[in-house]
């Protein structure tokens, strides 16, 4: 399978260029089968939980415990929550998002210097998966490695705008700290030692990647998706959505719920590797992105992942006779080959590894 990941199976088309060309009908490649199209059904009055992190590291034991419980029930019931009072500067969040918007608004030739390949996916891309003839999503993206340090190569990051590399470094450092705090809280809430998840992810060598998504305006938003349904293959994701435009939908009881972004919040979600380590006490949840005809949308997805060559398996503490291990050990490198080959396909992969044990 590795051999298929050398190059894209067909010429790459930048969705932003299509959008800016002024076409009124989207090419057939982007038209989803009717069952996958956004229904635009009446929204129910529910939203993912909002968790205030202010007391997460309070010395008051009761307050701390309450926050851990809120995180735990959000992870169990939704696999998603919006985190407020997370300690990251709102100004830094805004500047980082805006510098990426500027990047995507640079001339095509400048962005093309960073064009990516499916070998590592690093750089400027427009598809996920290498299946020839696949139906594509209405988005472009930029993908980069932040951790472990030996995989970080700022020369592969955008050279323009001039402040982009510094902002990525500064933003990354802050988000990594927040990930550490959340992993602690999740470990405690699972009844594990507070450093369990961080250590199982490689300790200092934990993985972290950033994917910046750009969803251009779409003349026929009811026929396509910005990002097809998937669960995140990694450990945990911290998403910084655009401030004034919704797009993310989360699957709950078979229905799609559109997330209304709370100002300055991070949207946190459980990935497949935490599902595996928690032996499915926490579940990664399917989500997707819808597009619109009015406004481009930018989002920053920061993925906190296991170091790629470690074996990931259910925590021994969470395995018993009554609740046997649901997954066999697998490295994250092996695991993510699936999405890198086939593109986003709901939760088929983690379910597949369950049925094959
Ligand atoms: C992702 C993702 C959601 C969004 O990048 O994995 O789910 O709103 N993004 O862009
Ligand atoms: Ni995702």
Automatic annotation (TrEMBL):
Classification via InterPro entries: DIOX_N, IPNS-like_FE2OG_OXY, IPNS-like_sf, Oxoglu/Fe-dep_dioxygenase_dom, Plant_2OG-oxidoreductases
Keyword Iron among record annotations: yes
Molecular function in Gene Ontology: dioxygenase activity; jasmonic acid hydrolase; metal ion binding
Domain called Fe2OG dioxygenase: residue spans: 205-306
Reactions performed catalytically: jasmonate + 2-oxoglutarate + O2 = (1R,2R)-12-hydroxyjasmonate + succinate + CO2
Cofactor: L-ascorbate; Fe(2+)
Ranges that cross the membrane: none
Superkingdom in the source lineage: Eukaryota
UniProt cross-references to Pfam families, sorted A to Z: 2OG-FeII_Oxy (PF03171), DIOX_N (PF14226)
The entry's keywords: Dioxygenase, Iron, Jasmonic acid signaling pathway, Metal-binding, Oxidoreductase, Plant defense
GO BP term, pick one: defense response
Protein family: Belongs to the iron/ascorbate-dependent oxidoreductase family.
Protein's recorded name: Fe2OG dioxygenase domain-containing protein
Organism: Gossypium anomalum
